[in-house]
Each structure stands twice: as C-alpha cells, then as structure tokens.
Amino acid sequence: MLKRIQLERYAEVLFWGLTTARKAPFKKKDIVLIQYEPPALQLAEVLYAGVLERGWHPVQRMGLTFGMERDFFLKASEDQLVFIPPGEKELYRRIHGRIFLRAPESLTHLKDVDPKRIGQVLISRKPLRTLLDRREEKGEYSWTLCSFPTEAPAKQAGLTLEEYTHQIVKACYLDKNDPVSEWKRIYREVGGIKKWLNRLKVKYFRIETANMDLKLTPGEHRRWKGVSGHNIPSFEIFLSPDWRGTEGTYYANQPTFRTGNYVEDLRLTFEKGTVTRISAEIGEDFARKQLAMDPGASRVGEFSLTDKRFSRIDRFMADTLFDENFGGKHGNCHIALGASYSDTFAGDPAQLTKGQKARLGFNDSALHWDLVNTERKTVTAYLKNGKSLVIYEDGLFRC
C-alpha cells in the first residue's frame, strides 16, 4: 500500500535513525545488516540500494514466514530450540548497524505454543543481544526498526489496510516532503524536555489514573532518554528505574499482542519491586508464564511517557511500536517488564559491570514486554528536597 515516494521517504528516515542512534559516525566499508519479514521486501530493496550508495557493505536476511515460525516452535526438539547457527555470533561481532523491518503476516499464529518454549528461545539468544548491547555502548554499533503495513495487524486493530497504512504514513511524517527535517525538529524539542527532566533531583515518581496508582524510584545515576533514532516512530521519553522501588498497581488498558498471544486489561500489583498479583481479562495464563521466564521478568525495566504534541498516532495499531508512542487525547505511559536499558545510566554505560548494574537496580532479564496505558493521568515527581512537582498531566510535559 505504500507508494514509491513513501518507501523512499521511509528509507531516508530509517537512515537518519540509524546514524543518529550511533555514538560514532559511520565510515565507508562499515557493515549494515538489513533484516526483514517477507511482506517488507519492497522497502528492503530501497534500503539495500541506499546502503550501497553510502559506501557501506549490505548484508540482507529475510525472516521466517509465519508458517515456518509456527512449525519451529511446535516441532523443534529441545536442542533445536536453542540452536544458534554457525556464523551468527561472528556476524553480530562485526556488523556496525542493523535495520529491522517488521511486517507480520499473523499476530496469533503462536497462540497454541507453550510460552515456556518461546522463553527458552529468548533466553538462548540473550548472549547475542548482550553482545550487541555492549558494542553499542562502545559506539561500535547501532540499530533502528520500523513496521511495514500488513493485513494482520490492520485487522486486529479494526482498520482497513488503507486506513492502517495512512496511520503509519502520518505517524512517521511520510506525508511531508522532507520527513527527516520533521524528525530533526522533534529530536531538538524533545532534547529540551530531557534536559529539564535530568536537572530534577527526584526521590520517586507517582503515576495516577482512574485505574492505576504506581510509585517508581528512578534510582541513582539515571538520565532520561528518548527520540534516539532507534525506533521509527518514537516520541517517548524513558528511563530504566531502580526496580527495587516499584510499589502499587499498574494497569495496561491497551491490549497487547506478544509472540502470537493476545492479552487484554492486564493489571499488576508490585510489592518491594516485584509483581505479586496478576490479573487479565484475556491472556492471564500467558502473562503468568511470561513473568516466570526468569527472576527479572516480574520486575520493571523501563518507564516511559509520550507527549501528545509530537505523536500523531491516534488509533490502536495492534503493534507495540506504535501503541507505546500513542498520542491521542491523553498521551500515554508504559512500563516494560524485564530487561532495562543501560544507556539510561548517567555516565559511560560501557564502563558498567554486571555487578555495578545490579547494585544500581538495573534489571536483567531475557524478557522486555511493553505494557501501555492511555488513560488521562498525572505524574508527580517527589523531589529530594521535600517538594513535589507535576511533570506530566493530560498528555503533556509541564516544563
């Protein structure tokens, strides 16, 4: 459904994201991996040509069809589930950039798969993710990703493919003659908000909605991040809190699709940083198994807020990439259960050891599951000097 000019604009925005996300500039002969799901072939072709034009070395990898993926999880032996192909680690050690194009042909094809098997695969591939995280911290690698419109999420979102495509075009500013300039503007303006937030000396945050009352402790040596180029689109401003200070109730009023499973109206109660109660209208058993994946899966790894002035997303998209950046009437917040982001450390994350991360309360897990709330909300910062300040209300940062 994307026109040629829109594909070209999308590619330029992705290249902006990839180069913006990397600490060190790209050089000639750098290696860039293009990973894509089959329906996104047209966009992959435009990106492939763009990589060549920039003097980089392209490597392309098409992902599994949804039928292959289903067969893998249903038929693979224990050894096959955790098998890492020869050369995979070598590739990840050498690539300098990665662009991933999501284009799902189904959102529910894994609903009959035991979530424990999916968890086994995630855990087996965690060392590869850690390898890339460490290389990114050193400025040797960056990544970005986007979604290509397909029938599956459009149907789940209650939209026609044409309506769904329009939402993607609007969200990524592909309806503008120069979308990269729009992204640069957003990058500057969000940068001002991050500077304001990072100057605050916060003891803890309280997030309140009609169905939620949650306390989050930012922790020591933290900084807010966001609009880094990693996700297209991305308007969120986030940090990885000290998981040990999470108390109260979180409610995800946005449904979520994860590894072929659907979860609706998920409610979590935290005590001393860990989920102690779980309920959901749909998908509760799946959620319980996800949170039992490893010790960190029931702890918070990320807290995020989106300002509705930047996000043009105003429909549920059945795609976390868009739903976690929802603008609409009241903006959104989300938490992620599981893995934290070490780049929210207010120092050089490359110098952080595993022990230091643990002492600072950075969570570690094979899981990273974003859960979105779009209700009208107030977020109050309780400062270390005893004062309090509303930092976010009704979808807007109050700086």
Describe this entry's structure for a reader.
With 399 residues, this protein is of the alpha+beta class. The chain has two domains: 4-177, 3-Layer(aba) Sandwich (Thermophilic metalloprotease-like); 180-397, no CATH class. It has twelve helices and 19 strands. A hairpin with a 2-residue loop joins strand 12 and strand 13 (274-279). The chain is globular, with a radius of gyration of 20 Å.
Q: Count the helices. How many?
A: 12
User: What structural class should be given to the helix and strand makeup?
Assistant: alpha+beta
Please mark out the parts with pLDDT under 50 across 5 or more consecutive residues, or reply none.
none
- How much is the average pLDDT? 96
For the largest beta sheet, what order do the strands appear in spatially? Answer: 13-12-9-6-5-17-18-19
- Radius of gyration in whole Å, from Cα? 20 Å
Largest sheet: 8 strands, antiparallel
In what range is the share of β-strand residues?
25-35%
Spatial gap, N to C terminus: 39 Å
Extended strand count = 19
* Relative helix content: 25-40%
Shape: globular
Number of domains: 2
Brief rundown of the structure:
The protein has helices at 4-21, 41-53, 66-75, 78-81, 88-94, 115-137, 151-156, 161-171, 179-199, 284-291, 320-323, 354-360, and strands at residues 31-36, 57-62, 97-102, 142-147, 202-209, 212-216, 225-226, 236-239, 247-252, 256-258, 261-263, 266-271, 274-279, 300-306, 332-338, 368-373, 378-383, 388-393, 396-397.
